[in-house]
Design goal:
The complex is a heterodimer of chains A (679) and B (304). With 679 residues, chain A is of the alpha+beta class. Chain A contains 25 helices and 15 strands. Chain B folds into three domains: 127 residues, Glutaredoxin; 49 residues, no CATH class; 87 residues, no CATH class. Classes of the chains: A alpha+beta (679), B alpha/beta (304).
């Protein structure tokens, strides 16, 4: 079919034609061309005659149009087309090859982003073209589609372009030729560069002179030789992968820079990561880890993604002239791919701003969002939050809480791909709900009742409630009364008992979920319940790396007081007490990744019950799965001091366990880990 | 002849010509008996395309005969998609997986399973003259090291320490991964407790510790403490070129923060540069001199 014919066929006049035009490759091609003309027509008119010929030629190719239009959003389609035209002009012969075509499209889409220089796009394209042809890239590069290549060709710094002298093409060449590893090994490549806050001249990484004397070296090489901190090391690891044709990204974490490598299709592996609070530097949509996982799932079902996108194009073209049909097109898009978050956002914004639904319709929309995206609670909230204000404004007072609870009910049984700022969502819901303390507490009680069964959302719900209600005397009593009702506590109304009743299971839930922030928040909240009993023990040099971390025991028991868990990692002391079991243990996740100088383990009883801990074995780990034993004793009188200088250079986890086959309790009062921070 | 003796003889006979061994665990056990070297070739046959040419050389039957007798060859294939059997085999190679930065790589382990050296990545292998030359060089390093250590056996005091230290120098591995050569340092300490040879200093030298000292004393303004420490290191004749340059850099860190010694800043950088002007650190010192002391361009000066 000719292009003209295709464009005629793209006319959407009724609901049946919505389906028929988007369901065939020819129809999607025509819709893609129409969309591209809609967003970039003016720019196409301004192109030179040669470039216009290129665009006309491009429009004829189903594959090449799909590369450009079905590989994730393009920030600036006019710029993207200009770049693509320039690449074709510069390498017409090379771009007859399908591999080079997808690389060119990925480069055009990447360099179409703000602050990416158009005139540098060809060099990036040529790097990957030449490296591929010379068999210098990992063979998996050849199997990547355009959208996947966007995570490769975007090598640079913090998601932005980096020129020669930084993480530019010279560094890529060096990394390609000097760091060639199996894909999964790139998650450890960052450690090829030493972690050094000061260079050998004593200049801090935070000053201007850290790398300044090493201008004669390629940046990647000088990072390996001079060193760096988290930012340099993570960029070294991520760009080493990308230089070899493997998708990777860097990402910000609180006070830290980490990275991730896509070790296989659908499987992103975080590296040098210290927190779930990750802000992706490169992403096709969104900036959180959940968004990375969900976009991978969406693009992984490329056929569904393509149909969904085609319906979005239909909807955009119909929005003004036929909103009814546009709504049907949006519905079709969501039906084609219910986890497509940008489709959801665009659809609900259309409903909110153009269709202005009736109150009962908001409830249906809210339920639909929560249900379809329940496997990704953070994304569900991202979409749900966009209708929160108008929906609550439209709904009657007695329906508002029910509306909010549709979200909580849908996600309560789902853990999602990763922890996220659930407390921020609660705060936003509470704010949007408004009202007096009683309304707010009613909201908290309903959420708590739903989330008390959730492994992931219970602890942050308690932590949020604690922060919001427990400080003011007026709301504090009511807050504890809520806890009492929810936990059916016999002591409801008594602050200490209510707090203990709430904190215990919440702390244990935070430990089970590995939620460091909730563990810390709840641990500090329990300070009034603790009597600090700091056992004196000589520390080792450096910072207390365990401080601010998280502990998780293999079980709990009636003698366990979870409010004391927090102090186990601190100088003030704490405790835990497992049930009677074989090989009981406690795993400590350090507050800071570190080069450990030593560990001090304190017992809670060196007398009659001291034998319960024997033989005591201490192990260390960087990832929480591979352990190295560093200490073993049968001497039940502690504290036990374990010097580890030079023997534990990268540690994030410490495990204490009883290493025999007895069924017995296990309890300790302190695991203090000292050393040099590596973040 | 009993059965065990026959097996031992066979092993000896095999090792005399060298042989390819299934995995590192087997090779390590065999090496202990036959006192053989173990050469490990690490590559990825299903992904490492630049390594294919090198792998061809490794797999050539002439490679084994050319590297010489008494050598065990272990092929460590880091495949992306290994079969279950290959995964199991990899477990038997874990102890022989050297800490390398790039593949393909070759590593040499001595008969006690200690790493002697590695050459990793196509660039390093090319610079070493190829896989065969790199392997031969590693084997020569091990032989020279052992000659030195053998001569240390008959020596005492400073002479013994010197021979042991020279053996470590040959490998250029510091004290090795996970400090495998710490026992050699302990022997040096025992033979030469006052470190007249300078080798204890050389193998405990830490640029980071010296820089940290400079920064620490600068905070307390107790500058002289660091200067005394640096002078002690200056007297050590065994420090390598890089270590001597790093020592000057640590002095620079001190003098930069010591108002009365600001005039020493340039001389220490010049000394650092002149120790080896063509080295990376020599160039870094020259760059720093330029950065700090080059005349600032006046407004209106045209660019050269």
């Amino acid at each position: 079919m000719s292009l003209l014919g295709a464009l005629e066929g793209v006319e959407v006049t009724n609901e049946a034609s919505i389906q028929s035009t988007a369901s065939t490759p020819e129809g999607r091609h025509a819709l893609a061309v129409a969309e591209l003309k809609r967003v970039a027509d003016d720019a196409i008119d301004k192109l030179s005659r040669t470039d216009r010929r290129f665009v006309e030629d491009l429009f004829e190719s189903k594959e090449r149009v799909a590369d450009f239009m079905l590989s994730g959003p393009c920030d600036d389609p006019s710029k993207g087309l200009r770049i693509l035209a320039s690449l074709w002009k510069a390498d017409p012969q090379g771009l007859t090859n399908r591999h080079e075509q997808t690389t060119a499209a990925a480069v055009a889409l990447t360099f179409a982003m703000k602050d990416w220089p158009e005139d540098k796009a060809f060099d990036r394209y040529a790097y990957f073209r030449d490296s591929r042809k010379a068999n210098q890239l990992h063979p998996s590069f050849d199997a990547l589609e355009t959208w996947e290549k966007r995570f490769v060709v975007s090598a640079g710094g913090n998601g932005g372009f980096s020129d020669v002298g930084g993480w530019g093409n010279d560094s890529l060449v060096w990394l390609r030729d000097n760091v060639k590893l199996p894909v999964s090994d790139y998650t450890g490549a960052c450690w090829q560069a030493p972690y050094k806050l000061n260079n050998l001249f004593g200049d801090s990484i935070h000053g201007a002179n850290y790398y300044a004397p090493f201008t004669h070296e390629i940046h990647a090489k000088r990072v390996r030789e001079v060193g760096g901190v988290c930012g340099s090391l993570s960029h070294y690891g991520a760009n080493a992968a990308r230089a070899n044709g493997i998708p990777a990204i860097t990402m910000g974490e609180p006070g830290h820079c980490a990275y991730a490598v896509r070790v296989s299709k659908g499987n992103w592996q975080p590296a040098y990561t210290l927190s779930w609070q990750r802000g992706l530097h490169t992403s096709l949509w969104g900036r959180t880890w959940t968004q990375l996982v969900i976009q991978e799932a969406a693009f992984g079902h490329k056929a569904a993604y393509d149909v969904c996108q085609a319906h979005l194009w239909q909807a955009r073209s119909l929005k003004e002239k036929n909103p009814d049909l546009a709504e049907a097109a949006y519905a079709a898009a969501l039906e084609a791919q219910p986890i497509n978050v940008p489709a959801w956002i665009e659809s609900v914004e259309f409903l909110r701003d153009v269709r202005k639904p009736k109150p009962e319709a908001w409830s249906v929309i809210g339920r639909s969002i929560a249900t379809k995206l329940s496997g990704y609670p953070e994304s569900a909230w991202d979409v749900f939050s966009r209708i929160l204000t108008p929906a609550l404004a439209a709904l009657a007072d007695d329906a508002k809480l029910e509306f909010l609870m549709t979200y909580h009910s849908a996600i309560s049984k789902e853990d999602g791909p990763v922890m996220w700022q659930f407390d921020d969502a609660l705060e936003a819901q509470s704010k949007a709900l408004g009202g007096d303390d009683a309304t707010q507490l009613a909201f908290f009680e309903k959420v708590l009742a739903i989330q008390s069964a959730s492994k992931s959302w219970f602890a942050p719900t308690i932590a949020w409630g604690q922060k919001k209600f427990s400080t003011a005397p007026a709301s504090s009593n009511a807050y504890f009364a809520v806890l009492g009702r929810v936990f059916s506590s016999a002591n409801a109304g008594s602050n200490e008992a209510g707090l203990r009743a709430a904190l215990g299971p919440a702390i244990l839930a935070a430990e089970q979920a590995g939620n460091v922030e909730a563990f810390q928040s709840l641990g500090k909240a329990g300070s009034s319940l603790r009597k600090p009993t700091p056992d004196k023990a000589e520390p080792f040099p450096g910072d207390l790396l365990s401080s601010g971390g998280l502990m998780k025991a293999s079980s709990t028991s009636q003698w366990d007081h979870p409010e004391n868990h927090w102090g186990l990692l601190e100088e003030e002391g704490g405790s835990f007490h497992t049930d009677s079991e074989v090989r009981p243990n406690v795993v400590v996740r350090l507050g800071k990744l570190g080069d450990v100088s030593g560990i001090v383990v304190l017992g809670s009883d060196y007398g009659q019950n001291g034998a319960r801990q024997m033989p005591l074995k201490i192990s260390i780990s960087e990832n929480g799965t591979t352990w190295t034993e560093v200490f073993r004793t049968t001497e039940q009188k502690g504290p036990w001091r374990i010097p580890l200088a030079g023997k534990a250079t990268r540690v994030q986890f410490v495990k204490a366990e009883r290493d025999d086959e007895r069924k017995e309790f296990f309890h300790l009062a302190g695991i203090r880990v000292y050393g040099r921070r590596l973040q | 002849m009993n059965r065990n003796a026959l097996i031992a003889l066979l092993l000896l006979a095999n090792s005399a010509f060298g042989q390819r061994v299934a995995d590192f665990t087997t090779a390590a056990a065999q090496a202990k008996t036959s006192k053989s070297d173990i050469v490990v070739f690490v590559h990825g046959s299903d992904w490492n395309r630049p390594g294919e040419v090198v792998a061809k050389i490794w797999n050539d039957p002439r490679f084994l005969s050319t590297v010489g007798s008494g050598v065990l060859l272990v092929d460590l294939d880091r495949k992306e998609n290994p079969t279950d059997a290959e995964k199991a085999a990899l477990k038997n190679n874990e102890a022989g997986n050297p800490p390398v930065r790039s593949l393909p790589a070759v590593a040499l382990y001595d008969s006690e399973g200690r790493l002697v050296g590695t050459v990793s990545g196509t660039e390093e292998l090319a610079a070493a003259g190829g896989l065969l030359a790199a392997t031969k060089k590693l084997l020569a390093t091990r032989r020279e090291r052992d000659e030195l250590w053998k001569s240390a056996d008959g020596a005492s005091a400073i002479l013994k320490a010197g021979k042991l230290g020279q053996g470590l120098d040959r490998m250029n591995l510091g004290l090795g991964p996970k400090g495998i050569y710490k026992p050699i340092l302990e022997q040096i300490r025992k033979a030469d407790p006052d470190d007249k040879s300078g080798y204890i200093g050389k193998y405990t030298f830490s640029n980071e510790a010296l820089v940290d000292l400079a920064l620490k004393v600068a905070e307390s303004k107790n500058y002289a403490e660091a200067e005394t420490e640096f002078a002690k290191w200056d007297r050590n004749p065994r420090l390598s070129t890089t270590q001597r340059q790093e020592l000057q850099a640590a002095k620079f860190a001190l003098y930069q923060r010591w108002p009365e010694k600001k005039n020493e800043v340039r001389p220490v950088l010049e000394k650092m540069r002149d120790i080896d002007p063509k080295s990376e650190l020599g160039q870094a010192a020259a760059n720093y001199i330029e950065l700090l002391f080059a005349p600032k361009k006046k407004k209106g000066d045209s660019a050269a």
